[in-house]
Design a protein that fits this description.
By secondary structure, this protein is mainly α. The chain has helices at residues 3-24, 34-39, 55-62, 87-96, 111-123. It binds heme C (HEC). Heme C binds at residues 62-63, 65-67, 76-78, 80, 83, 85, 90, 93-94, 98, 101-103, 105, 117, 121.
Length: 129
Amino acid sequence: MSTAAWRVRIAAALAVSALTWMSSAPAAEESAAPTEAATTPPEPIAEPEKPKVDVRKLFAMNCSWCHDGYGLHAGKGPKLAGTKMSVEQLYDRIAKGKSGAMPGFAKTLKKEQIDAFVEYIKGLKDPDS
Ligand code: HEC
């Protein structure tokens, strides 16, 4: 699958989680707009897709010996949570590595697995901030 197609998939997944989050938030101002709320059918919410990639398992196998705590703490490599890198930079770093510091994973991981790492790292909450 092309990178563009995966971007679309990731965007769709994010949109679904946003919808899920919004629908679980308490309805504010219930009495303020009763007519609209009563007549608008609820948005259908797609079933969350079963993740195809088990990121934590992959992380344990490929990254944990340098990035501690599933990316939450520094080890031989830096803490990944709270990285300033963009999605593209993260993809690039994981695929190509960094000479003398980190191996590249373009040959051992599939594109969808690298994408899953990028999404996972972007979603980490920095425990130190
Ligand atoms: C052999 C040790 C090693 C392994 C294995 C390793 N890394 Fe790294 N990684 C490093 C080091 C060292 C750096 C810092 C490189 C530098 O100087 O910028 C780094 C940097 C990174 C960065 C950039 C973080 C930032 O904000 O600068 C990301 C993202 C990353 N690694 C992800 C991964 C992922 C995902 C895996 C597993 C697929 C992995 N690494 C496996 C050693 C490793």
